[in-house]
């Protein structure tokens, strides 16, 4: 297994190129941790230490530390859903590789910025203490769109069972906190109820921070969500509003308003799911098995609103862009890259293309992608400073076309009910308001509807529906008269557009948009072999 022992003797942390080392591997190179992980202390608590975080923020954080020599930006990574990541990282001292397959020789870098991992099911007290620790200056999140537990209108879903449990625990802690908080010998809170939702863990940690020190802190969402910083701030406020009454007078709200900031960010790197082939390629370079390996394309972008409550890593020294307004970057990325990703995912999966690279190599799908990008999305955007949107569109399609990443259409197709509103429906709303029906976006919506309704490729191969609303979607898709013998089910589009969890009424009731979606759905349904 990858560990300090297997690497320490081979890698020199002080090397000018960050320990870059040619292990004499066939054609790849291995770079060691850019700083000595043993010397690093925790400065960041990250909720959602999955593949994307480890291939994106954790890499930039390590490079920033290498540039400045700072050793206080270690990451405590929290894995929410299961202990898998814990089981992968703990035996490796938190070390893991980032494999960049690349068109020629794969390259691998071993990252050492994740210094500790925790799972709320067993480690909530430790996580709350880490969020409260004055040495922690950033609490960041990559919990995916569905992880925020919001209602269709964007408000916190206070009926979510996990949120309910966390709010009860929060209430109990407030009662405890208003008096003497029970601490163990390390000064950490003693027995606490395991946190069940990221927002619950975050608020409970912030409340403990306020109670113990009141030290400023920055909450940094790194998810593909419009105005992600504002969203988290709103959810924190709504979580507290549902529990704290005025006579609690904890002063928590005042502290949040004055000592906690929620900057917005835009993150970009294609991070395909790690396969055994990826692990084998990494093992060929290092000679050891890395169960925590992640994979990333060569491209990486991070745009961050420069509004921090306290210290932060010098991420700009590692390629991050700081700005006072991320909006142009965010809109361009979510609508152009992620919206087109969804179009190619659903059209590509239906056509039987396993990889995004195959989908974008399909001339019809490439044309559909360019129509969405250039005819529908670009007219709704203000170009980020210095960015030519037509060239940005082509750069996105070049990245999608890279076969070496192995990004699959079904991976991008996951969670469509939460992704469509963020990535496509803003474009639809803006184009309709401008008096134009966005044919490309309507085609993407139609492809998603058919993907949900039929559940197979045109040739009949099964397609998995992985979506938090799967039961609701299936029920809507299989209406009373639906089925193979009814042919194209005219009621299908109306029923799917009636799903308020996904489509605002204004879109569903727009005759031109609905008719265009119908046309594409009928055309797609006509392509099934049976
Ligand atoms: C993809 C994103 O899986 C998906 O939904 O569209 O993960 C995409 O690869 C990243 O946002 C790229 O930055």
UniProtKB/TrEMBL annotation:
**Top-rank EC class of the record's enzyme:** oxidoreductase
Highest taxon listed in the record's lineage? Bacteria
InterPro entries assigned: 6-PGluconate_DH-like_C_sf (IPR008927), 6PGD_dom2 (IPR013328), Mannitol_DH/Oxidoreductase (IPR050988), Mannitol_DH_C (IPR013118), Mannitol_DH_CS (IPR023027), Mannitol_DH_N (IPR013131), NAD(P)-bd_dom_sf (IPR036291)
Name of protein: Mannitol-1-phosphate 5-dehydrogenase
User: Record's family?
Assistant: Belongs to the mannitol dehydrogenase family.
Lineage start: Bacteria, Bacillati, Actinomycetota, Actinomycetes, Micrococcales
Identify the residues that the record assigns to the Mannitol dehydrogenase C-terminal domain, covering every copy: 325-484
Q: Give residue ranges for domain Mannitol dehydrogenase N-terminal.
A: 43-316
């Amino acid at each position: 297994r990858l560990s300090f022992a297997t690497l320490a003797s081979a890698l020199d942390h002080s090397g000018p190129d960050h320990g870059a080392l040619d292990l004499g591997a066939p054609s790849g190179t291995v770079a060691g941790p850019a700083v000595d992980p043993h010397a690093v202390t925790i400065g960041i608590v990250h909720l959602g230490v999955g593949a994307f975080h480890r291939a994106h923020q954790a890499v930039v954080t390590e490079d920033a530390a290498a540039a400045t020599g700072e050793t206080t930006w270690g990451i405590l990574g929290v894995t929410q859903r299961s202990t898998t990541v814990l089981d992968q990282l703990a035996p490796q001292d938190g070390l893991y590789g980032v494999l960049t397959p690349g068109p020629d020789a794969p390259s691998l870098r071993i990252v050492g910025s994740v210094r500790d991992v925790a799972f709320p099911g067993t480690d909530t007290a430790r996580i709350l203490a880490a969020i409260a620790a004055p040495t922690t200056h950033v609490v960041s999140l990559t919990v995916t769109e569905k992880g925020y537990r919001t209602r269709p209108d964007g408000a916190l879903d206070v009926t979510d069972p996990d949120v309910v449990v966390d709010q009860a625990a929060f209430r109990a802690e407030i009662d405890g906190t208003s008096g003497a908080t029970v601490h163990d010998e390390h000064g950490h809170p003693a027995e606490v109820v395991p946190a069940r939702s990221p927002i619950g863990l975050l608020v409970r940690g912030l409340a403990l921070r306020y109670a113990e020190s009141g030290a400023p802190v920055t909450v940094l969402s790194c998810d593909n969500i419009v105005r992600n910083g504002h969203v988290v701030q709103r959810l924190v406020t709504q979580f507290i509003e549902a529990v704290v009454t005025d006579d609690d007078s904890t002063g928590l709200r005042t502290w949040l308003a004055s000592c906690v900031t929620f900057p917005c960010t835009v993150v970009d790197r294609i991070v395909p799911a790690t396969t055994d082939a990826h692990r084998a390629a990494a093992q060929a370079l290092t000679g050891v098995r890395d169960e925590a390996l992640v994979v990333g394309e060569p491209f990486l972008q991070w745009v961050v609103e420069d509004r921090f409550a306290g210290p932060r890593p010098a991420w700009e020294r590692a390629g991050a862009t700081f700005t006072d307004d991320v909006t142009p970057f965010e809109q361009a990325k979510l609508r152009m890259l992620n919206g087109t990703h969804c179009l190619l995912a659903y059209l590509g999966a239906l056509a039987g293309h396993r990889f995004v690279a195959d989908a974008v190599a399909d001339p019809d799908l490439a044309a559909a992608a360019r129509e969405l990008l250039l005819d529908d999305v670009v007219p709704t955007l203000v170009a980020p400073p210095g960015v030519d949107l037509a060239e940005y569109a082509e750069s996105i399609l070049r990245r999608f076309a890279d076969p070496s990443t192995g990004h699959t259409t079904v991976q991008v197709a996951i969670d469509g009910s939460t992704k469509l509103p963020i990535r496509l429906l803003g474009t639809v709303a803006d184009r309709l308001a401008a008096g134009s029906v966005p044919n490309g976006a309507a085609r993407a919506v139609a492809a998603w509807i058919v993907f949900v309704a039929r559940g197979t490729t045109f040739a009949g191969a099964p397609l998995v529906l992985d979506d938090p609303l799967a039961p609701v979607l299936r029920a809507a898709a299989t209406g009373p008269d639906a089925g193979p013998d009814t042919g194209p089910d005219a009621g299908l589009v109306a029923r799917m557009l009636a799903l308020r969890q996904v489509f605002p009424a204004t879109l569903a009731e727009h005759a031109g948009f609905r008719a265009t979606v119908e046309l594409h759905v009928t055309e797609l349904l006509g392509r099934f072999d049976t």
